[in-house]
Specification:
By secondary structure, this protein is α/β, with parallel strands linked by helices. Helix content is 54%, strand content 10%. Strand 5, helix 11 and strand 6 form a beta-alpha-beta unit. It binds adenosine-5'-triphosphate (ATP) and magnesium ion. Magnesium ion binds next to helix 7 and strand 5. This is Disease resistance RPP13-like protein 1.
């Protein structure tokens, strides 16, 4: 398996998911949906030949290498632009909502022209142009489509548990900030249940961070009841309730009746301060939230639900404090790669590997999942050329 393929492949997967969710979320933005949709279509066309391109690059095909370099640059620029768009769109949406709530005329459609940055549409057109160029230049390279099924290492991750990573790198500030949201006095003075949402791209370390917090001594001392649920793609209220109840009572729970389960959970949470982590939440409908949260209303002041998600527009009925997780610092990413490849904190004791190691770490762009997977692949390789 080619090294570049892992993170470019997962990065593409992430971009595709992001674009798909944006096409849904911004369907009412005049013009935007069409442009986003076009980018999504072209991304899929490129994605289909990525594996073959990576193989040909490894075989020394310079034209393919140049093409892949352009693909990589475009992928990163697209992500930056989408991030920029989401921030601006959220601001515009807020502005529109507050003006309609003050009696303004409700508009059905929002458009680019409302975005603060006048250059945004130009930038998106430019990105679309680059996509077209890359798709056009693909033809003479004779790349084959879908030669490898990459779903096994992008989508099929193991379900998470509450246990922390044995070796954890960085994230001191993130941990302190979220800790404050969870147990800070000022933040919890007059609230019963509130929700902290940890948001970030796939593989950036949301779950790992939530695990650290869940096992933090201050957290375990502060909450009388704690529960961890790996939600993943299906938000099943019955299953989630069952898992939370099971982890609180420490007994397996086979009941399939939601009413009985919720009543039991309610009894167990009554006047207790609790923390529940819902890991890897994708999409939740409003009615599913209302149903899930019913038994939680009886908990003591300061009770919390943490959700980790890639989707920053999850519907939620309670006040949510959103915390965005960014990539790891270069040093921490290098340490992670060194740990998984060599069981060392850095490359100092391994001069033969230092140069290549640091270059590979740089290519991980701060993504812990990439550092861990590449480190694992390089483990036990004794020849630096490999
Ligand atoms: N700071 C860290 N120190 C050590 N390992 C980490 C760190 N952050 C993440 N990891 C490891 O990197 C991998 C990816 O991280 P994680 O699963 O937390 O990402 P995620 O953001 O939850 O991804 P997804 O959106 O796919 O759920 C995991 O194996 C995790 O244990
Ligand atoms: Mg996760």
């Amino acid at each position: 398996m080619a090294i570049g393929e892992i993170f470019l492949g997962s990065f593409f997967q992430f971009l595709l998911e992001k674009l798909a969710s944006m096409v849904l979320n911004y369907a009412q933005w005049e013009g935007t949906d069409t442009l986003l949709h076009k980018c999504e279509e072209m991304l899929k066309i490129i994605n289909a030949v990525l594996d073959d391109a990576e193989d040909k690059q490894l075989d020394g095909d310079h034209r393919v290498k140049q093409w892949l370099d352009n693909v990589r640059d475009l992928a990163y620029d697209t992500k930056d632009l989408l991030d920029e768009f989401e921030i601006e769109a959220a601001q515009v949406k807020l502005g529109v909502e507050s003006s309609t709530s003050k009696g303004g005329v409700k508009r059905k459609f929002l458009s680019f022209s409302q975005l603060h940055s006048p250059t945004f549409e130009t930038k998106l057109q430019e990105i679309k142009g680059r996509f077209e160029d890359i798709v056009n230049k693909k033809a003479p390279l004779s790349l084959r489509e879908n030669v490898v099924d990459r779903s096994h290492y992008t989508n099929k991750r193991l379900p998470s548990t509450s246990l922390s990573e044995p070796q954890f790198f960085g994230r001191e500030k993130e941990e302190a900030d979220i800790l404050k949201l969870l147990i800070g006095e000022a933040e919890n003075v007059d609230r019963t249940l509130s929700i902290v949402s940890i948001i970030g791209m796939g593989g950036v370390g949301k779950t790992a961070l939530a695990q650290r917090l869940y096992n933090n001594d201050k957290v375990s001392n502060c909450f009388e009841r704690r529960a961890w649920v790996c939600v993943s793609d299906v938000f099943d209220v019955l299953d989630i309730t069952k898992t939370i109840l099971g982890s609180i009572t420490k007994e397996p729970c086979k009941d399939k009746d939601l009413d009985r389960l919720q009543s039991k959970l309610k009894d167990n949470l009554s006047r207790k301060k609790f923390l529940a982590v819902l890991d890897d939440v994708w999409n939740v409908k409003y009615e599913e939230w209302t149903s899930l949260l019913k038994p939680f209303e009886v908990g003591a002041k300061g009770s919390k639900i943490i959700i980790t998600t890639r989707n920053n527009s999850i519907v939620c009925i309670k006040r949510v404090s959103s915390y965005f997780v960014n990539v790891l610092s270069k040093d921490n990413c290098t340490s992670m790669l060194a740990y998984h490849a060599l069981r060392a904190r850095n490359f100092e004791g391994h001069p033969n590997f230092e140069k290549a190691g640091k270059r590979i770490a740089e290519k991980c762009k701060g993504l812990p999942l990439a550092a861990k997977m590449l480190g694992g692949l390089l483990h036990n390789r004794e020849n630096p050329k490999e």
